[in-house]
Write a structure and sequence with these properties.
single chain, 208 residues, mainly alpha, 9 helices
Length: 208
């Protein structure tokens, strides 16, 4: 619709959000292409939150595509814009993306530091991304064989899901004291599904 009216900037902003849905559907390359085309259009605009968010997501996508140099460049620019705007929501996203760079570069402690900072910002501003940050922290600790810490982050994610009204998780899911690693795997899957559904309104800038 925007393209038909000649508003390429608005069309690019819509495409950048649509890319999230496409990525969740498992079409990674298509999502990356959508974001790249959107950024090509928006790169010359006055920097704002939409552009900074797009840069952070592009950076994360480049990490998983194996292009660490371009990933870091995009993320650093996102952080620069976010700092100038004082945008907590963009900084949280950018720090999450930056943690992916560190993790894929074999620097797990640096990755955790970025995630912890992202969590602090998300808690301060009660961001929709907080749940996914808890899950990512849990995943990081799980792969370091720190199962109690991993479970602790999942418990925080569960409490957050309850507070935000999610009914997908059973109330006593984490109340057993004899949790096994296989159960933790299952809990992580359940919470990831709940958080994806809970975060869908973010695509349209609405709150759950």
């Amino acid at each position: 619709l925007y393209e038909a009216e000649g508003d390429t900037g608005a069309a690019a902003r819509v495409s950048s959000r649509l890319a999230l849905v496409v990525r969740w559907q498992g079409h990674f390359d298509e999502a990356l292409e959508l974001m790249e085309r959107a950024y090509d259009v928006l790169a010359g605009d006055e920097p704002d939150e939409d552009i900074a968010q797009l840069l952070a997501r592009l950076g994360a996508s480049y990490v998983f595509a194996g292009d660490a140099a371009r990933a870091k460049e995009r993320i650093e620019r996102s952080i620069e814009i976010a700092e100038s705007l004082g945008s907590g929501v963009v900084l949280a996203t950018a720090f999450i993306s930056r943690s992916h760079v560190a993790r894929h570069s074999g620097r797990p402690h640096e990755a955790l530091a970025f995630l912890e900072q992202a969590r602090a910002i998300a808690v301060e501003h009660d961001l929709e991304s907080l749940g996914s940050i808890y899950f990512t922290l849990s995943d990081a600790e799980f792969h370091r064989d720190r199962y109690e810490d991993a479970l602790g982050h999942l418990q925080q994610a569960l409490a957050l899901a309850r507070r935000r009204g999610s009914r997908l998780l059973t109330p006593d899911l984490f109340e057993r004291g004899d949790l096994r690693v296989d159960f933790l795997h299952g809990a992580r899957v359940l919470i990831s599904i709940a958080l994806i559904l809970a975060c869908l309104p973010v695509l349209f800038h609405t709150r759950a």
